[in-house]
Specification:
Layout: E1 25-27, E2 33-38, E3 43-48, E4 54-56, H1 63-66, E5 69-75, E6 81-87, E7 93-99, E8 106-110, E9 116-122, E10 128-134, E11 140-146, E12 152-158, E13 166-168, E14 174-179, E15 189-194, E16 200-204, E17 210-215, E18 222-226
Antiparallel strand pairs: 1-2, 2-3, 3-4, 5-6, 6-7, 7-8, 9-10, 10-11, 11-12, 13-14, 14-15, 15-16, 17-18
């Protein structure tokens, strides 16, 4: 801060913190921890980006032996828990919770008809998890999962087309997501959906493919990727 243009420290700087394997991962709100899948075992792992230390959060035998593995994960607002998708022995996907110290693991949501549930964000008050569900009937849904009891409130049911990225507003009142309105086109537009189900509005309508929208911290703008 305060450096003149072109001087060291000015502008945006990229710094490699870990050259890990490809795959879904999540960053804690303080930027210290990274949750990811250890594909050598299938366990969900936690990496400390300050010390470089890594440890498993789940404990299982190798993926070849048990057939179970973790997938996507998201930190809670207080960075004390992680919600993640888990592929079970019965060949179905669950949403599960676990503490950062490995404590209190539990199945939050299990429904074989829901197909593949993926956690996307945690509400600021820590009471709900925004998730998408790829159902066995080939429909996709956006919903809120209650942390207390695993009950689900569906906000939007889509057809076979999957949302192109999804984000929760900082006060938890709105969801922004990308979706291709034309079945014969991969060009996504961006929509805003209220979490109380009262309304939905198209925010970005353009011939380009606009995907992966996220809210700016102040809630007044949305950043998204586009091929325009």
């Amino acid at each position: 801060p305060g450096a003149a243009a072109g001087e060291p420290g000015s502008g945006m700087v990229a710094r490699r913190v870990w050259a890990g394997p490809e795959g879904a991962s999540a960053l804690s709100s303080d930027g210290r921890y990274l949750s990811h899948v250890d594909w050598s075992t299938g366990n969900l792992a936690l990496r400390d980006l300050v010390t470089g230390e890594a440890r498993p959060l789940t404990h299982k035998s190798s993926g070849q032996e048990s057939g179970e593995f973790a997938v996507s994960s998201v930190f809670s607002p207080d960075d004390r828990q992680v919600v993640y998708t888990w592929y079970s022995k019965d060949q179905s996907y669950d949403l599960r919770l676990i503490g950062l110290d490995g404590s209190a693991p539990r199945i939050l949501y299990r429904n074989e008809e829901a197909g593949y549930p993926e956690p996307r964000a945690w509400s600021p008050d820590g009471k709900y998890i925004l998730a998408t569900f790829s159902r066995n009937d080939r429909t996709n849904q956006i919903g809120l999962v209650a942390v207390a009891d695993g009950s689900v409130r569906i906000l939007k049911t889509l057809d076979w087309r999957y949302p192109g990225g999804i984000s929760l507003f900082s006060d938890g009142r709105y969801v922004v997501y990308g979706f291709a309105p034309q079945e014969d086109s991969n060009a996504h537009d961006i929509f805003v959906l209220s979490t109380d189900g009262s309304r939905e509005i198209p925010l970005v309508q353009h011939p380009a493919n606009d995907v992966r929208p996220i809210w700016a911290p102040d809630g007044n703008r949305i950043v998204f990727a586009s091929d325009r």
